[in-house]
Amino acid sequence: xxxxxxxxxxxxxxxxxxxxxxxxxxxxxxxxxxxxxxxxxxxxxxxxxxxxxxxxxxxxxxxxxxxxxxxxxxxxxxxxxxxxxxxxxxxxxxxxxxxxxxxxxxxxxxxxxxxxxxxxxxxxxxxxxxxxxxxxxx
Length: 138
Hints:
By secondary structure, the protein is mostly helical. It contains two helices and no strands.
C-alpha cells in the first residue's frame, strides 16, 4: 500500500513539476513580451522627446525668420523713403539747373563776351549744381 501511495505521489509530483515548468516557461515568455513592449515604449518616448525638440527648434527658427522679415521690411521702407527723397532732390536740382541755363542764355544775350564776369559766375554755378546732382545719383 505505501509503495503504491509513494509511486502515485511521485507520479503526481512529476506531473506537477512538468506543469510547473510549463507554466514557468509561459511566464518567462510573457515576461519577454512585456520587456520587449517596454523597450518599444521607451524608444517611442525617446522619439516623441526628439520630435518635441525638433518642434521647438522649428518654432525658434520661425521666430527668428519672422523677426528678420520685419527688420527687412523696415529697411526696405527706409530705402524707399530715401529713394523718394533723392528723387525729389534730383527734381529740385534739375529745376535749379534749368533756371541757371535760362540765366546763362539771358546773360549771353546781354554780354556776348563769355569772359564777362556775370556769365563766368553763372557757368560756375551751373557746373557746381551739375556736379552735386551727379554725386546724388551715385
